[in-house]
């Protein structure tokens, strides 16, 4: 009886428990809003799974895909293999650290992520503010090879994990950065740094990757750099900052701003006025694209970078492998240093084209180098200027002699113009005939000036490019490769086209130019006759006498003080030479007597003079015929 009672109680208990559970489930059932959220979550999960499957078809990797610690667990290994495929092996061995190497010239850092140079400091140089010269620092540069793999991935080496090793053999330090598939399969960047040498041997080669790299897809090498500011005047530095390249077996050119496509290239250089970063190759690059962009808006803005550079180079596989032998040059744009490599790198120094470059390379550079061994560079500029002016003094003598002859003939020329004032054509004929007989011509004074132009332009190119002048002081100028300052305007003040400072050497040069032009053009203004239908040369010379010094003052205020020093000394010496020629060498009475003797002698006309005379006679006859018809 009790057992039946117990069974009944048990049944009642189970019923009550079931009822309570049923009531609780009913109370906690999801609302319509919660049901909608659950359905949305399911859909998002389905879409995520679909996206993952699509990514597995062609994966484009980023830097975040390769972050892994040394204690990677099995799940992380699986994730790495999903992202990197065969190169997951390298990620498990690599670290995020940098590899540091030094020589007597360099302090270098290599990034284990990307395997490229992440920092280059030139140990022997500092900038205008005594800060060490860095060509690469704080991610201002990148070196990347973009390629596809046989498992449909697109990879960028700049983000991939490399395994580094450093060995030293005497004065040579070898840095090997390997992107590994296994211990015997890898892509390697190999650097050899030598003591006392700015040229770093560099090679990119792969081993055992013919079945990993997709040969049907393009392989591109991309090299980018933003140039740090190193000079006091960023606009002046930017004027000499550009991309240079050597192509077609010895031809050299540059791109200052914009893009260029080049064939058959042996090196590409990012030149930052006095320092350069150059990538060279033993096997010439094909179809190279270069691009440069100006990052400087105006001088008054304190800008970190001058220009950005970019180069894209297609690489060709050899037997399914990458094998490209190259070199890096990170160093000064010094003609003597660049020239010793015998790879046409001296074209980075803008000495000018044609005759101008020849004068600089074979005359001024050796002469200035010789003088710089025995005296301060400021004194060397003065001495070289004196030597150049003495060498050209005969040209000035010829120029001044021609001016003197024209001055002596002026009364006779005035008489001809008065006699034929109603017949301008006849006046020009007689004027030309008199000048020919006397051996005097306005063009004779122009020719000596033209002879001086190549020397003038060559020196204009030479001084801004002379690396030896960098940070060399003279008198009040603390750096002959930059402008000198005797007064700095208050912060925020600047004169358009002039700058925010006052330089003394351009002022002195402008004053010297004014007095030089007054001596030379003053006499020309008196002796030059006004030709019918021609501009008033005397008035133009008068304007030039005032305009040239002002232009010099504004134009050279931000230029190298060494260049302004040269023009100042040059014009002072020219004034002295002219005064000596005028007061002690030329005798106007003697010249007048010589002219009279020449006038008596029959003068044989050259072909040009005969042609001009015939044309003028023909024009005179036509004029007379027209007057008769009237």
What is the secondary structure topology, with strand pairs?
Blueprint: H1 2-27, H2 32-57, E1 59-60, H3 74-84, H4 88-93, E2 98-102, E3 106-111, E4 117-126, E5 132-136, E6 141-148, E7 153-156, E8 163-169, E9 172-182, E10 185-194, E11 199-207, E12 219-228, H5 234-239, E13 241-247, E14 251-255, E15 258-262, E16 265-272, E17 275-285, E18 288-294, E19 305-315, E20 323-332, H6 335-339, H7 354-374, H8 377-391, H9 393-419, H10 424-438, H11 442-465, E21 487-488, E22 501-502, H12 504-527, H13 537-555, H14 561-585, H15 588-600, H16 607-629
Helix pairs in contact: 7-8, 7-11, 8-14, 9-10, 9-11, 9-12, 9-14, 9-15, 10-16, 12-13, 12-14
Structural class: alpha+beta
Percent strand equals 15-25%
Report mean pLDDT, rounded to a whole number. Answer: 80
Task: Indicate the overall shape.
Answer: elongated
Described by strand count, sense and barrel closure, the largest sheet is:
9 strands, antiparallel
What level of helicity do the residues show? 40-55%
Are there runs of 5+ residues with pLDDT below 50, and where?
Answer: 1-6, 51-72
Can you count the beta strands?
A: 22
Q: Please give the order of strands in the largest beta sheet.
A: 8-9-10-11-20-17-16-13-14
Number of helices: 16
